[in-house]
Amino acid sequence: MRMTNPAFVPPDAMKGIEQLLRATTQGGVPQRTLELVGLRVSRINGCAACIQGHVPEAA
């Protein structure tokens, strides 16, 4: 199922996503690489809002 808007993600799922993002920033992977991975995941999930958020950060 593709997301049209991340606001439709159940609140408990969003908490897990936020924790995962915090953990990945502490792992030593360059931020640009994390943004590129986030961009790819957003494309796979079809989340336009997430894509728009990752593009400027990855550039």
TrEMBL record:
SUPFAM superfamilies: AhpD-like (SSF69118). Residues 11-58 form the Carboxymuconolactone decarboxylase-like domain. InterPro entries: AhpD-like, AhpD_core, CMD-like. It comes from the Bacteria. This is Carboxymuconolactone decarboxylase-like domain-containing protein.
